[in-house]
Amino acid sequence: MSLEARVGAAFDALFPDGPPASLGIAISGGGDSTALLLLARAWAPDCALKAATVDHQLRDGSAAEAARAGKLCEDLGIAHEVLEWGGWAGEGNLQDAARAARRALLADWAEREGLRHVALGHTLDDQAETVLMRLARGSGVDGLAAMRRAVAGQGIIWVRPLLDATREELRAWLEARGMDWIDDPSNEDPRFDRVKARKMTAQLSALGLTPERLVRTAGQMALARDALEEMARRAVAQHVKVDRGDVLLAHDLADEPEESRLRITADALGWVASAPYRPRYDSLRAVLHTLERARQTTLHGCLLTREKTHTRIAREYAAVTHAAGLPSAPWDGRWKLDGPRPAAGSHIAALGEIGLAECPDAKASGLPRNSLMASPALWNGERLLAAPLAGKPAGYTARLLLLHQHLVSATLSH
């Protein structure tokens, strides 16, 4: 079967009801995303494609590369936008920070453009490299499982139609059509783990551990993951509730197998934090052990509080102290304020202690003080306009964006 036919079949499986009216494409200008753009166009010539390039502004030439990707889109009659990252603060893992920023920028762009789906150019080689990297980190079943072809998160659905295609065949397909692409120099930088894994796959292939076999193993791990998730879903239905953005884990969840307890807690933390990645296994076990002897602790940008019949997982105020956004945009990756058009210059930010003091009816909400402080509020400068969860709606409601990839939301949002 030709590459076009295989990728077309992958698109068909992702969209069984036919091509959507519009589809977002994340294009870097590299071979994978360039092929993705052209293959998507071939699959659905009548679909309104919209493309975006994230310029991380981490090296000279990145703006020119983004402009080149834009020129390709212009030649094809496809709307294109460059999304600029404000830059790395120099702390933590650069590639993790860039990946998180890229997803956030693309999600905001998709929201503005009214896109429900954004396609990513991950390939079979990316699958294999990810398995190696996670194996090196001591990951369990979930970490070693194959990438999902479609995953909901940050208010949209991310799709990966190229997971059965190799980097080599995508480039050969482009060359056969006289198309060129831009090679990102960072893809050869040995400081990065993914580059190390990429070079390692060549050596492992000589031993018979080819990318295809790594991906086959990942597929088998995905079957195990799905079975474990089904067990966890059944436990969620019995032991877990959502309380206006907080997750309540009943104490009798302790009667479930440890794997289910850890999985559910990790997913609850990820959902509350709107984080694309789970906390590390060791950190998760440590925090659960802490809660056996302490009433409160924090992990993953969340506050865990042991209450009478359950453990409440809420957003940690310290994690959203500086988070601010436009009134029309999602806030903290999971909240949307609906209501009248606010005054110019208004923004959404956490309610905080100062805002809470201006909400005399906050106690009637039944939410703990810490949960209310981390809840979304509408501000104009330093003046509080509305705090829907704290008894000061002023015509606004706070709506959870429930399209997330995490188990708890997937189970409880219906």
Could you walk me through the main structural features you see in this protein, from its secondary elements to its overall organization?
- The chain has 414 residues and is of the alpha+beta class.
- It folds into two domains: 3-213, Rossmann fold (3-Layer(aba) Sandwich), CATH 3.40.50.620; 321-400, no CATH class.
- Helices cover 43% and strands 19% of the residues.
- It contains 15 helices and 17 strands.
- The chain has a six-stranded mixed β-sheet, with helices on both faces.
- A hairpin with a 2-residue loop joins strand 5 (150-153) and strand 6 (156-159).
- The chain is globular and about 70 Å long.
- The chain starts with a helix and ends with a helix.
- 39% of the residues are buried.
CATH topology of the largest domain: Rossmann fold
Q: What is the CA-atom radius of gyration, in angstroms?
A: 23 Å
Structural class: alpha+beta
* Strand content range: 15-25%
The CATH homologous superfamily of the largest domain corresponds to: HUPs
Architecture (CATH level 2) name of the largest domain? 3-Layer(aba) Sandwich
The CATH class of the largest domain is Alpha Beta
Relevant terms:
414 residues, alpha+beta, six-stranded mixed beta sheet, 15 helices, 43% helix, disordered C terminus
